[in-house]
Amino acid sequence: MRTLVWILACLCAANALGCSVATDVDGYAFEDSPCPRPAHACTGGRALWFVISRGDIARSVGDEIAGFNLDATAEAVCGHADKISPVGTPGIDNAASPLLAVLEDPMHRTDEVLFEGLLSGVITVLQVNHVDDLVSDDCVDVQIRRAAVPSGQDPPTYLDADRDGMLDPDLHLNVNSITARDDRACITGGILHANEGDLPTLFPSTPVPMEVDTTALHLRAQVSETGLTEGWQGGGVSVVDLVSVLHLEEQPFLVSVLETSADLYPMRDGSCSHISFAYTFEAIPFTPQVSGTPP
Fold it and tell me: How far apart are CA 9 and CA 286, in angstroms?
């Protein structure tokens, strides 16, 4: 705990000026979707199903880190300068990943912990409906769902029978309720784009995946018949929610660190209420079933 407090103290010192500059709240707006957002619902096409097979926090490469320009500005917000992506895109909002990378247990990397969670039965799948073209499609319906292994199956054995640290191909999974959806998503240049709004999602950058309320969720990934690659999901998570799910109410110092790291949704007192985050994922095809029958 002393080491944790020391690390957080260094981060807090680095962010000591994080909320000293007031922001024009009235002019603050989140980035719009890259999709045309047609007025009509998506129709026709086919459905593709993918199960998340890998996940990890965004890793810094020098001064660069992947993520999204969530607030449609490259200017500092609450005193926090935006970052640059590895391909040179400015305005990247991703305050949580560097923080979590510092706190990460080197003996239990986030990607390894997430895969262990997957094998325990914490399964997330993406349903992409109304797909007409995998290169350019102006209207597809993206649904994020929970899933489970078939009844009677042991999750670790069924999902990774050969124990090679990867999900096995040709899985059959029972799909459950929708946790997030964008029914006006699109595919441009072979990249799936979706904005999922203000809905719960799995926040993967913790030893145990937690359900938290997120906002301004963005998702993008290379899409093909063989899966989703170079996938990213990012958004903002409320400091209040993090304090609650991490049970930090009795640790005011840690609460202060989260508050000074916040970089989204500036308030009139110059502070921000949300912390930006981004994580990477990959997904492979699977066969969906509902009560034993493909949906």
Answer: 45
Residue 283 counted as domain residue: yes
Among 102, 126, 154, 157, residue whose Cα is nearest residue 233: 126
Structure tokens at 9: 């103290």
Q: Is the pTM of this model over 0.90?
A: no
Give the DSSP per-residue string, 157-216: HHH-TT-SSSPPSS-EEEEEEEEEEEEEEEEETTEEEEEEES-EEEE-SSSS-EEEEEEE
Is there a domain that residue 294 lies in?
no
Cα 65 to Cα 39, 86, 189, 193, 272, distances in angstroms: 35, 6, 23, 19, 21
Half-sphere exposure of 95 (CA within 13 A, CB side): 32
Question: What does the pLDDT look like over 218-229, one tens digit per residue?
Answer: 889 999 999 999
**In total, how many domains does the chain have?**
1
